């Protein structure tokens, strides 16, 4: 299949896709599911290419793998675990079996407990020593931070109760900056850690505990924990009624839908949080039922495969024309790169194609005045993913939103159409002539034919955000199955953790640098001379 796709790519690589994009192609290469429209017409995928890509899904066994995932089979083979974040948004409670046990009663009970606690915090029924909670500090990292941090920003227009802060970095600047703005007597600290062992999180949690203890008599009463390790949360001193547990079949970067979403739930309320879950559930239903040729996550995945594994474009820019989605690129970096940044397939063989792409981005229009220069005229092609809402939330500034939308559409159009040398000459002919005209015109040429997809939606509501994040999760799943890798482990983060633990005494000066390489030893020496 890979060879067939590469052969086909050779036949379309030079085709100007601007010449192909008429109304028919725009409809044929777009799909609408629930509230979302995915347009992938501005690419050089043609019908044959799409058919081949869909054959690839079938050959790779995506259908069977998808069904196995939803059925609770242990598709995370290297860790022997099921992958069931979808159960967390299965609000109708239909049975989901793991090892012969229906997990839904526990899932729904935890959701009810979280909802009651979140509403108590919001209403003031739950208080700190100094009264109603004014600030919530979520301490977590990776999946225990990026999801809720991204979603609280994305849903800022729905955020109507305590201020929410997110501390992730072990750099003391992070926690010190946040705690400086909070009153310990009215702050709730949420320690979010699936394992409850992550060094950054546990270090920050102890710092927060000490900060609170200066003022608050019973600090444990103002701490909550989100974890799979209830023994460890108890040892930390957090009472069981404020521990919201989940199972090991929820991966860290897929955990926003359950207890790890508590800070989001406190920010927007339990009803809006359920609407967020319903959006994701709608995308799950679509993913399970739509034909691959009409299936949003599958199509987004095959476009990604086309650009990365077939065309060889190493990166992908995610460009939300939605300022509140400013943390989406960082969230997607973990979701996609921790899931699909692997060089070994499930059976232990080396991959024969590239692993997943480097994902990066910033909201438009800011990026336009920063890195779009390279996207338009650089020597490397960067496939772009634009996201845009029909409406913002600032009704009195709707004209400004229209300008935002115009910018978004202009960028994908400019990337596709480009500007020829003749057009560039015509632009500068009033100012220059002769050789100087030629030289100046060359700088103003845009190669065009640069691919992009656009995801459009009515408005960034909790329901729409749920759909969007579930769309990306399933896209990652499909790409992972096609590559034959396990998208649900993350062994690649281990070595650095082990070496950091070993280096701590070296940095502190209680161990020597004898067994370190020359470069590391010299850096330790330099930092120690400067007071580390
Ligand atoms: O929630 P935990 O267990 O603290 O882990 C945090 C993050 O660390 C990782 O395990 C990677 O180091 C991520 O996969 C995870 O989201």
UniProtKB/TrEMBL annotation:
UniProt entry keywords in alphabetical sequence: Cytoplasm, Gluconeogenesis, Glycolysis, Isomerase
Cellular compartments annotated: Cytoplasm
Broad EC category: isomerase
Residues the record marks as active site: 338 (proton donor), 369, 497
Pathway where this protein functions: Carbohydrate degradation; glycolysis; D-glyceraldehyde 3-phosphate and glycerone phosphate from D-glucose: step 2/4; Carbohydrate biosynthesis; gluconeogenesis
Reaction(s) the record says it catalyses: alpha-D-glucose 6-phosphate = beta-D-fructose 6-phosphate
GO molecular function terms noted in the UniProt entry: carbohydrate derivative binding; glucose-6-phosphate isomerase activity; monosaccharide binding
GO terms classed as biological process: gluconeogenesis; glucose 6-phosphate metabolic process; glycolytic process
Listed InterPro entries: G6P_Isomerase, G6P_Isomerase_C, Phosphoglucose_isomerase_CS, SIS_dom_sf, SIS_PGI_1, SIS_PGI_2
An annotated GO cellular component: cytosol
Principal subcellular localization: cytoplasm
EC number(s) given by UniProt: 5.3.1.9
Residue ranges the record marks as coiled coil: none
A family per Pfam: PGI
PANTHER family attached to this UniProt entry: GLUCOSE-6-PHOSPHATE ISOMERASE
Purpose: Catalyzes the reversible isomerization of glucose-6-phosphate to fructose-6-phosphate.
Family: Belongs to the GPI family.
The protein's name in its UniProt record: Glucose-6-phosphate isomerase
Species of the source: Yoonia ponticola
Taxon lineage: Bacteria, Pseudomonadati, Pseudomonadota, Alphaproteobacteria, Rhodobacterales
């Amino acid at each position: 299949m890979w060879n067939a796709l590469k052969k086909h790519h050779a036949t379309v690589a030079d085709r100007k896709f601007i010449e192909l994009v008429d109304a028919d192609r725009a409809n044929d290469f777009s799909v609408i599911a629930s509230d979302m429209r995915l347009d992938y017409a501005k690419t050089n995928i043609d019908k044959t290419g799409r058919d081949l890509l869909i054959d690839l899904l079938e050959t790779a066994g995506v259908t069977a793998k998808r069904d196995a995932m939803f059925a609770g089979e242990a598709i995370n083979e290297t860790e022997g675990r099921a992958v069931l974040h979808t159960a967390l948004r299965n609000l109708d409670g239909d049975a989901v079996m793991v090892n012969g046990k229906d997990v839904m009663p526990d899932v729904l009970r935890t959701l009810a407990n979280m909802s009651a606690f979140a509403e108590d915090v919001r209403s003031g029924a739950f208080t700190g020593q100094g009264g109603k909670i004014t600030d919530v500090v979520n301490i977590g990292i990776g999946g225990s931070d990026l999801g809720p941090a991204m979603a609280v920003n994305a849903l800022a227009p729905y955020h109507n109760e305590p201020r929410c802060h997110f501390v992730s970095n072990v750099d003391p600047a992070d926690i010190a900056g946040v705690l400086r703005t909070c009153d310990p007597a009215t702050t709730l600290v949420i320690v979010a850690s699936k394992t409850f062992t992550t060094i950054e999180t546990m270090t920050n949690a102890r710092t927060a505990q000490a900060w609170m203890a200066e003022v608050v008599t019973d600090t444990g009463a103002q701490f909550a924990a989100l974890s799979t390790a209830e023994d460890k949360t108890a040892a930390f001193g957090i009472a069981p009624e404020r521990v919201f547990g989940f199972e090991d079949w929820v991966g860290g970067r897929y955990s926003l839908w359950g207890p790890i979403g508590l800070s989001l739930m406190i920010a927007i309320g339990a009803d809006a949080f359920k609407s967020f879950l319903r959006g994701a559930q709608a995308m799950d239903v679509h993913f399970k039922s739509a034909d691959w040729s009409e299936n949003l996550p599958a199509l987004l995945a095959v476009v990604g495969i086309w650009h990365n594994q077939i065309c060889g474009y190493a990166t992908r820019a995610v460009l939300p024309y939605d300022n509140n989605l400013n943390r989406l690129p960082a969230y997607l970096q973990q979701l996609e790169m921790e899931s699909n940044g692997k060089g070994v397939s499930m059976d232990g063989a080396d991959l024969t194609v590239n692993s997943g792409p480097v994902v990066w981005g910033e909201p438009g229009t800011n990026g336009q005045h920063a890195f779009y220069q390279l996207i338009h005229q650089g020597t490397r092609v960067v496939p772009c993913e634009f996201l845009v809402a029909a409406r913002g939330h600032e009704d009195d500034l709707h004209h400004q939103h229209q300008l935002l939308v115009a910018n978004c559409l202009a960028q994908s159009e400019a990337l596709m159409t480009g500007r020829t040398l003749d057009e560039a000459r015509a632009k500068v002919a009033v100012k220059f002539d002769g050789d100087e005209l030629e030289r100046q015109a060359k700088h103003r040429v845009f190669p065009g034919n640069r691919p992009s997809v656009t995801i459009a939606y009515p408005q960034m509501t909790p329901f729409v955000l749920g759909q969007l994040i579930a769309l990306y999760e399933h896209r990652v799943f499909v790409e992972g199955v096609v590559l034959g890798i396990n998208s649900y482990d993350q062994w690649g983060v281990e070595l650095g953790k082990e070496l950091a633990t070993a280096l701590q005494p070296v940095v502190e000066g209680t161990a020597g640098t004898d067994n370190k390489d020359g470069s590391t030893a010299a850096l330790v020496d330099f930092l120690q001379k400067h007071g580390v």
